[in-house]
Amino acid sequence: MALVCLSDFEAFAKKYLPKITWDYFAAGADDCTTRDENILAYKRICFRPRMLRNVSVVDIRTNILGSEISFPVGIAPTGFHQLAWPDGEKSTARAARAMNTCYIASTYSTCTLEEISVAAPGGLRWFQLYIHRNRAASQQLVQRAEALGFQGLVLTADLPYTGKRRDDVRNGFRLPPHMKVKNLEGAFEVCKMSPLDPSVTWNDIYWLRSLTRMPIIIKGILTREDAELAVRHGVQGIIVSNHGGRQLDEGPATIDALVEVVEAVRGRAEVYVDGGIRKGSDVLKALALGAKCVFIGRPALWGLAYKGEEGLQEVLRILQDEFRLAMALAGCASVSEIGQHLVQFSKL
Amino acid sequence: MALVCLSDFEAFAKKYLPKITWDYFAAGADDCTTRDENILAYKRICFRPRMLRNVSVVDIRTNILGSEISFPVGIAPTGFHQLAWPDGEKSTARAARAMNTCYIASTYSTCTLEEISVAAPGGLRWFQLYIHRNRAASQQLVQRAEALGFQGLVLTADLPYTGKRRDDVRNGFRLPPHMKVKNLEGAFEVCKMSPLDPSVTWNDIYWLRSLTRMPIIIKGILTREDAELAVRHGVQGIIVSNHGGRQLDEGPATIDALVEVVEAVRGRAEVYVDGGIRKGSDVLKALALGAKCVFIGRPALWGLAYKGEEGLQEVLRILQDEFRLAMALAGCASVSEIGQHLVQFSKL
Amino acid sequence: MALVCLSDFEAFAKKYLPKITWDYFAAGADDCTTRDENILAYKRICFRPRMLRNVSVVDIRTNILGSEISFPVGIAPTGFHQLAWPDGEKSTARAARAMNTCYIASTYSTCTLEEISVAAPGGLRWFQLYIHRNRAASQQLVQRAEALGFQGLVLTADLPYTGKRRDDVRNGFRLPPHMKVKNLEGAFEVCKMSPLDPSVTWNDIYWLRSLTRMPIIIKGILTREDAELAVRHGVQGIIVSNHGGRQLDEGPATIDALVEVVEAVRGRAEVYVDGGIRKGSDVLKALALGAKCVFIGRPALWGLAYKGEEGLQEVLRILQDEFRLAMALAGCASVSEIGQHLVQFSKL
Amino acid sequence: MALVCLSDFEAFAKKYLPKITWDYFAAGADDCTTRDENILAYKRICFRPRMLRNVSVVDIRTNILGSEISFPVGIAPTGFHQLAWPDGEKSTARAARAMNTCYIASTYSTCTLEEISVAAPGGLRWFQLYIHRNRAASQQLVQRAEALGFQGLVLTADLPYTGKRRDDVRNGFRLPPHMKVKNLEGAFEVCKMSPLDPSVTWNDIYWLRSLTRMPIIIKGILTREDAELAVRHGVQGIIVSNHGGRQLDEGPATIDALVEVVEAVRGRAEVYVDGGIRKGSDVLKALALGAKCVFIGRPALWGLAYKGEEGLQEVLRILQDEFRLAMALAGCASVSEIGQHLVQFSKL
């Protein structure tokens, strides 16, 4: 059967991935309310489409932190891509480059940053960092990424501890023995405790700043208060995210939080959003509400699970086509014409 | 089993039409949210019925652009009626004339305008136009329609490109070889690309104006801003429509959009609405909110699928009876007594 | 199995009545939205119960138009009780008298007013009237009722024509040949058309006034405008009713309409409500929102269907016990302590 | 299968308890609307989590009426623990002490207060009182509790009569013959009527005050008016409660009522809440809205039903871990940092 929309890829992945892997990718914290709200919240936003606007050419390109991408959808950082496809993050990197968009490689990759770089030279990539108790290991990672040409450092702020994902507890989820969190080999040995450092505060942004010239993007912001703090601490970008609903359950849907973050930031940093993007029109809604770009997490994994690099390209191509069509049907010929006038929150 | 309401016709059509045809008629864009919202939105409108008003005679006649019709329900333009019934649009034209109402014939008819005219001479008909890249072909069509006695030109504004209807993609929907979009034969040959012109703008209203003396009705308007533009460009009528939810998914339900369009138009043009009409009381709601008349799309196809001309007449007769009864039970003896005081948006 | 609440009686009736009878009693107009909303609307009203108020004695008696009843629940007028139980309205009258409450006998009874009177002498009864085209027949009925000791005349205002109840159409519902609308025998012969007069207006209240000294109660009012008119035309009582959702579908739930009617009436007439009462706490809500008394329709028929007079008494006794308990748990020792402070409309 | 969250314990209890017992524990009044709303209302509250706040140490301890407890979750008073586990309330007392939290022992315990005290000497316990018609029996109970070292007297205000729990009526629920309401043996003999006194009023608080030096906590308050009265009558604590939805159905969810009670009390007494707590994040929400501590009812019974003392400890430990994690993920390092800024009522 042809896969015509992202839900088709989801159904494929659910059917063909081992249950323990599917559960891990699909997991949300506790009751999975926030995971599901990320999607439902998009449904409560209603377009106000405009007619007769000459959409014979629709330009969907945009820029993020100065780099042009073919359309405003990048790959969010998710871990353990080898669970989805043998080549793991190497395939992800190749697909992102082929589609000319940005890939945020996770600290918890099953390939090294070096392998990723070699797999798709010249691709636009950012590196996602968890700060570890072993600060030297984190410093080394940041500097490796910069040396390899990564063009942004994404600090994840919402994981001082791992959220409670019931199925993972029930399944006893762990990485199979033949896979490794390769970027951290060695680092783990000096730190027997949970490697993540829950004492990280805003001051650590200054420490990261001192380590690298890469722009710093903070991921996991959900309130105007934290958006203001992020700007004051000099970040270049904010990813409005609730970690796909995998951390604190029953926080806001990201598209709802986006509105207050954009308002607080007032253009002083770029604002992105992830979570719940399933159609090209979701991308249009996010941009209408002020996002510069969106990032997809689980849909990228479904693409990998389907056919590796090729499958992920198909996912991206579908989103691209749907986004272009949504723009045309809403009366926008370029991303600069997208604005808040295009949407309203529905009565439901 | 007797068919006592429009849903019964829907069930019949779903059961007896080939799946690919049913899917094509039923299709909505993407998740079909707007298609379904068109119906649900009527449920959120609540009557305020008035009692003891002498409804021994209930006059349901009205006028649209100067022509009297037997009740405020016409036939919306939909394509490919031969998929529903062998005689196709000829049956539609006959049923509309028999019931003394208006039929908007689609560019994508499977009968020619000439065949339609011959089938039901003297019937009130408007012609629905898609503007093609081949402007000469469009001009010719408009002038053929006028010459044949069509009394209105309906420009569809919401289809610069076709919406993404997943089932049609999955089914590989296309017209069977023995059917033709007859009005366009010849025109296609000079234009190998998709024949519709996505560069159409408001200025093309002036061009159409220069081609014909028929009143111009614009179909597909959903916002006050576009309603204002339509009036300024001199249209005589506006059909509030989202193409049955087949174009941009997650736009407003038409009955919700009607309110703001009516408000913006302030009587400077007639306003109609299509989408989601399933009962006579829906017609009453639309009129209470300012529509001069409603148009039905899918229910007309179900009627055709049931018994051709006769089936469509039955559908119209049911709506007529239900509309008359709803008027009486709400305390209205003529359409001029219908007003906004009759309805309120419910808390739900 | 013991029947412990009204829903249990409903389930019994659904199981044991002939389908065509069940369908007739259960029927709502069109999509049955209003029928169901009558019940759902009660769910949106939330108590604000008060504690420690000495409820060792709870007095649930009240008065309607000067007559004391044992608790504020009467029997609404419904037709054809012989469909539920062989003795028909005679059983209803006996049960109402036994429980010391008011029974509104319908024009469409399957027993004569005389039979009803003889069955339960001394019971508090009102007579429900449909005004017929044959005004003499209506006049005669009113005067028969008064002569038999009926103490109120209830004019039904919401049935100029019968609502469209799809199942009744499908079933071809009609009274079985061995049952008769006995009150109207003779009257029908002089009037071959539908016997009800859709030309009735507010002025006919004056005509009724001239025929009888019984207080006049108007049934079927749903708006403040009509409530004001009713008061101005001198009625003594108003029953807020949508005919159990059997007439105009998608009007307001009666408990919602009650609020605006009570506000408009400002104590100048007594206000009652029917529709959707299924628990003693529903009665408490209706009284808190200003109703003097409620009337039950379908639940009375379920009681009859279960065990005739005895079954209806059981239904009334359950409501009585539940109402008394709800009062106690909300902190009210008598109906005079029930007020709007006891409820709020919930956020849902 | 591992039990990883409270719902797992619920499923276990439902599976292994006798139906009549399960029904009794699960029962809500009437339609069980309030019972279920207690849970749903938590879903309508949305976190505003804060990031990068140094949560390397999270201190979850708090104090209630001057006693430190290990985390803000105590055991609400529920009856008949021997139905869940042979050792009954003795197990409950041991588990509460082991987890260093407060246990409110019910008048309707199946163990005596003396047995409870001996089972877990030194544990923090409050005694829940129903005032009986036999006031001497109540006085004696209060004084026994104080002598045994109970540190609080909880007066239940919402049970002048028992709510109507349909399943209990259907099942003919009663305590099996080998179990006894041991605290009341003797007292029952002098009072053949229902032993509870529905004439209790606010003045009885003064009477209780005269009997004991224990602080008085009133349980069952749902409105600002009653909260004000409670403070004026000198109580030290208020438990916002609707008796788990077992008394008046369709009153407010407790978490919704908490907001107005806290506002009315303005710090003049401690405010607690029970009903609907199923996750650690629910505890965090209750504290954010002003509760000093929450109490769990049914989940404690599920824990007992699973493995007695050990099972209840597991339930408490899960809540403790979840609460600590929720605090960390919301950015709170101690309960003093929890405040209203952490939550908002969602649009749904």
UniProtKB/TrEMBL annotation, chains A, B, C, D:
Catalysed reaction, written as an equation: a (2S)-2-hydroxycarboxylate + O2 = a 2-oxocarboxylate + H2O2; 2-hydroxyoctanoate + O2 = 2-oxooctanoate + H2O2
Keywords, comma-separated and alphabetical: Flavoprotein, FMN, Oxidoreductase
A GO biological process held by the record: fatty acid alpha-oxidation
GO cellular component: peroxisomal matrix
Cited InterPro entries: Aldolase_TIM, Alpha-hydoxy_acid_DH_FMN, FMN-dep_DH, FMN_HAD, FMN_hydac_DH_AS
Co-factor(s): FMN
Coiled-coil stretches: none
Pfam family, one: FMN_dh
Sequence positions that bind FMN: 77-79, 106, 128, 130, 156, 219, 241, 274-278, 297-298
Listed Gene3D superfamilies: Aldolase class I
Active site per the UniProt annotation: H243
Binding site residues for glyoxylate: Y24, R165, H243, R246
SUPFAM superfamilies: FMN-linked oxidoreductases
Residue ranges of every copy of the FMN hydroxy acid dehydrogenase domain listed in the record: 1-348
Molecular function via GO: (S)-2-hydroxy-acid oxidase activity; FMN binding
Top-level EC class as recorded in UniProt: oxidoreductase
Top-level taxonomic group: Eukaryota
EC code(s) of this entry: 1.1.3.15
Similarity section: Belongs to the FMN-dependent alpha-hydroxy acid dehydrogenase family.
Protein known as: (S)-2-hydroxy-acid oxidase
